[in-house]
Amino acid sequence: MRLGRNTKEILIKNMFLGVAALSILIILFIFIFLFKEAFPAFREMGLSLFTSDWSASQGKFGINAAVFGSVAVTGIAMLIAVPLGIGGAIFLSEISPPRLRVFLKPVIELLAGIPSIVYGFIGVTVFVPYLAKTFDMLSGYSLLTGGIILGIMALPTIVSISDDALKAVPREIKEASLALGASKWETIKLVTFPSAISGVTAGCIMGIGRAIGETMAVMLVVGSVMRIPSPSFDVFETGSTITALIAGQMGEAWGMHTSVLFATAVILFLIVALLSVASDLLQARVEKKFRGG
After folding, report:
1. pLDDT, tens digit (0-9, with 9 covering 90-100), for 69-128
2. What pLDDT is stored for residue 83 in this prediction?
3. For a Cys-Cys bond, which of 17, 53, 103, 193 suits 60, CB 3.0-4.6 Å?
4. In contact, 149 and 130? CB cutoff 8 Å
5. What is the DSSP code (8-state) at residue 223?
6. For 169, what's the count of Cα atoms within 13 Å in the CB-facing half-sphere?
7. pLDDT at 286
8. Closest CA to 148 of 177, 168, 119, 180
């Protein structure tokens, strides 16, 4: 039996709708599972979960040190990745010759797909000894090292998405600016970049999302010590992150310890989800703006 064109379109539409619904259900089930396992920790510990005291053997499970470590290494990563990423995107989109762009764009996107363990290995073999020698540290394992590695990891994501946003700015707008006597740099600074700011911001948020969710690279270079440095701005001290805490202790955890690790996973899940939603909203804003919606 031959199907009519409308019937085929309806079947294809329903198929894609089913796939989308399945994806949403999978994410929902993951969150429900995480929250179910984390609920005992939220119920029994309450706000004491958000303290700095961590000693699994004594039943103390304050996760503030891991949260602080995640914020610290992500902040350092963004201080490195955001300016370099935006600068790289501007060069790629507005300055580089077409042949060079054709070569660089796939290379940058390839770098974004390199496994984190590779970056972690580079961190251990290159950055850890270099920073230890340069800054006269007892060891090169520190929040600073973790931030540098995560900054390098987030850089390709920021460059790629920011480049797409800059390329989405209509050529007519740029040509009008040049026709009015503005230089190429003035056009980039006053026209192109402001027009693409939402998309560039989305790229930065995606970079933050990747940085805060990375595990292996961070575990290998930050030292995985559950404490907040004193003073707190001392990034040359060892520390830990949410992901490193979960990966490092899940294998030996039981009872309340396991539930606390699931609670930290819920917190991480929500942070990454919020960053992803914010990025999507900003990208949608860019598309709507240039479609005249």
Report:
1. 998 999 999 999 999 999 999 999 989 898 998 899 999 988 888 888 899 999 999 999
2. 94
3. 53
4. no
5. B
6. 25
7. 64
8. 119
Contact 192, 39 (CB under 8 A): no
Q: Interhelix angle for 197-213 vs 64-90, to 10°?
A: 140
Query: What is the tally of structural domains in the chain?
Result: 1
* Domain CATH number, residue 70: 1.10.3720.10
Environment class of 65 (CB within 10 Å of its CB; exposed 0-12, middle 13-18, buried 19+): buried
Residue 145: predicted pLDDT: 94
What residues make up the domain containing 86?
A: 5-290
SS3 string of 78-102? HHHHHHHHHHHHHHHHHHCCHHHHH
Closest C-alpha to 140, from 152, 154, 126 = 126
User: Which pTM value belongs to this model?
Assistant: 0.83
CA nearest to 228, candidates 240, 217, 216, 220: 240
